[in-house]
Amino acid sequence: MKLRIHFSVTIYLILLFIIGHILVNLEALETHTLGFAVYLVLMVCAFYFFFSRYSCVLSIENNVLKIWYLMPWNKEVTLNLKSYQFMDYGRGFYQLNSRQKGYKNLFRYPYDTMVFSNTADFKENTIIRVNLRFGQFSVLLNYLKQNEKLKLTDAKGQGGFFW
Prior knowledge:
- The chain is built from four helices and eight strands; from the N terminus they run βαααββββββαβ.
- It is α+β, with helices and mostly antiparallel strands and 163 residues long.
- It has a single domain, classed as PH-domain like.
């Protein structure tokens, strides 16, 4: 069984913003080229920081989780899921979920975090940060529980990863 999840919608919104900003401000582009370029770069960086950090393409095939991040400074992740038995997760600020565990700080955590461990005490763990499309994180969690047989365990008392 395979699972593949693509970039979050915010990446496409950034591209639309750039195109729209250029089209709306063609006159400013001709007269104030440097200012226009600086303003555009600052706006795109702010949008990325607040909405699109850790945006990625994620795939699971043959019990191997592969994550390709949009930005090159985030290293690609390859994880053999057979090596883990337990998982926990924290939702980012923008995700609406019945589970209250996660990050609630608007300016720091617009992404979801997953923690994988082979032991229930989470002393040895692997932490992965992802920013997926709305609703796709739930699809990923269901896939990991049903197909990969990972057990959702509360890591709060052990590692204190989430609030």
